[in-house]
Design a protein that fits this description.
- With 119 residues, the protein is an alpha/beta fold.
- The chain is built from 2 helices and 6 strands; from the N terminus they run βββαβαββ.
- The protein has a domain of 70 residues: 2-Layer Sandwich (Translation Initiation Factor IF3), CATH 3.30.110.
- Strand 1 and strand 2 form a beta hairpin.
- The radius of gyration is 15 Å and the shape is globular.
Length: 119
């Protein structure tokens, strides 16, 4: 039996040469996971390659879009995220379940709350 998992992917649609500015599109899609998953309500957000402040901004947007109790897993490569994302989670009233470093990647697992404290 395949479980359903929601994936959020960030793709650059335009990059300006010689500039830090770029536009990115966030797409959300459900897909069947061939591996048995005990967390069908988990959402994965791949932000690898994005620099501050984009990882924290995209994480905030995804966290606010989730329902109560849903799990958000964020993977990124920006070293500042190790400071910024835990602070964001606290500000949003969510729960940070784990924050791990694996090589050059950072992985955060958080659980969304019913309502952000500062909306």
């Amino acid at each position: 039996m395949c479980s359903r998992r929601t994936r959020i992917a960030v793709r650059s649609s335009a990059i300006t040469s010689g500039s830090q500015s770029s536009r990115a599109r966030v797409s959300v899609r459900d897909e069947a996971d061939p591996v048995q998953d005990d967390e069908p309500d988990r959402v994965e957000l791949d932000l690898t390659g994005l620099k501050c402040p984009l990882p924290v901004l995209r994480t905030r947007k995804a966290l606010r879009a989730l329902g109560t109790g849903r799990v958000l897993v964020v993977v990124c490569t920006d070293p500042m995220a190790m400071i910024d994302i835990p602070n964001l989670v606290r500000e949003e009233g969510a729960r940070l379940d784990s924050a791990e470093r694996c090589g050059d990647r950072l992985c955060f697992r958080m659980t969304a709350s019913a309502k952000p404290p500062h909306s």
